[in-house]
Recover the amino acids of this structure.
């Protein structure tokens, strides 16, 4: 629903993974996909930033975009696309708004501009930006553990 505030549920491990990726790619922007179920972000797929000016923009590589088909075959959905702002605020840039090609997925931005990394999530639909409340879910359960792909989470989460 465009413009409707909602929350984005994420495993804390997925949040850590985004921050680690952002730090590893500094000073370039990094980007990737988050797969999950029922709006819950569970698995992080690190992408390659193939943008010509990677310090100020991002473009996911085709191989990572193909991962979406693979995880959809496993019953997962694209929950979010993340990227980092090495020196900018954790808000969508004008380009991010124009280039939001996946309105059904949340846009997560990790900023490294401050003393501590900051994560914010947005819904960008038809140029309209609304912020999503991040809600951290526990790995141990909370009602949906029957379908939680634990093996996947472990194999794609690096510390
Ligand atoms: Zn951006």
């Amino acid at each position: 629903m465009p413009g409707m505030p909602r929350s984005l549920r994420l495993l804390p491990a997925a949040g850590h993974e985004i921050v680690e990726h952002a730090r590893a790619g500094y000073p370039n922007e990094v980007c990737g996909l988050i797969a999950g179920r029922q709006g819950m972000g569970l698995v992080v797929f690190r992408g390659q930033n193939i943008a010509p000016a990677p310090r100020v923009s991002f473009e996911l590589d085709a191989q990572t975009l193909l991962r979406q088909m693979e995880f959809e075959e496993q019953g997962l959905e694209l929950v979010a696309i993340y990227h980092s702002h090495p020196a900018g605020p954790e808000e969508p840039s004008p380009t991010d708004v124009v280039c939001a090609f996946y309105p059904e997925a949340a846009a997560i931005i990790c900023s490294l501009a401050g003393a501590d990394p900051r994560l914010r999530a947005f819904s960008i639909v038809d140029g309209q930006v609304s912020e999503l409340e991040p809600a951290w879910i526990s790995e141990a359960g909370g009602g949906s553990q029957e379908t939680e792909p634990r093996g996947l989470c472990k194999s794609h989460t690096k510390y």
